[in-house]
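Batch manifest, entry 17 of 40.
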Amino acid sequence: MYFDEDEVKKILEILVNNFDKFELHLDLLYKGTVKMSSKHDTLKKMNDVKFKWGVKDGSELVKLEPKLKQIGLINFTKKMAKILPLSKKIFIPLMWIVNNRLGMFIYNK
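Output type: structure tokens
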């Protein structure tokens, strides 16, 4: 999200090189949303802060660090849909694509 692809790769390398095992839960940004930093409700109020990297489904992290295993992916749209007014429920399919998601990964040496 706030790191570019090379920075994410370096962080993952540091983790696998310094721990025997871990479970990692990451807030993942959809790759198409990276271009819309200036429209984000929080980022548009900040100077020089932008999204740098996003993913489709989390598998991109496993490609960056093949020692990781993805064990889950939660899209937050289902929970959000419950609180949306009826007039906005038509946008749920679009929200499913662009909404943030939680990626879950494990590493065992």
